[in-house]
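Final report, closing paragraph on structural work. Over the funding period we assembled a curated collection of sequence-structure pairs, and we close with a single example.
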Amino acid sequence: MDFTYNELFDGHRIRLLTIVDHFTRECLAIAVGQRFPSGDVVKALDHLGASRSLPKTIRVDNGTEFTSKAMHRWAYENGVTLDFSRPGKPTDNALIESFNGSVRAECLNENWFLSLDDAKEKIESRRQDYNEHRPHSALEIWPPKNSLYLARLA
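Its predicted structure, as stored:
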């Protein structure tokens, strides 16, 4: 789980909270907002937890949103361990850093966002395409959704 940034056409900044499953490589969520205090991170995780089981561990950096009391409380109440990367070592969370780079290259740099809703729509479309159609080398060229299906058959 990590953040990346972009701008709307008028210069207003937006933040993207990206959440990727390390095992399946599925992008579970990309939440888009102008601000993302820790309470909003908790809401995004609660929303995700309503439709699927929560992981035992979430790897995060040392940003204030992840080190907050609200986040620690959420993790404790849900039996989730927060695995913090070492300060200044983005390679500790290389998967999400790589994912954010592909989001930037394939979506953020390729689109002009007219509004927050426009950004949410285009980014969600890219997330679905990534999960359902984009091949991933770590999954023997299968997209994450297909690899989940194939794993169930095995």
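Confidence is low (pLDDT under 50) at residues 147-154. DSSP finds six helices and five strands in the chain. We thank the funder for supporting this effort.
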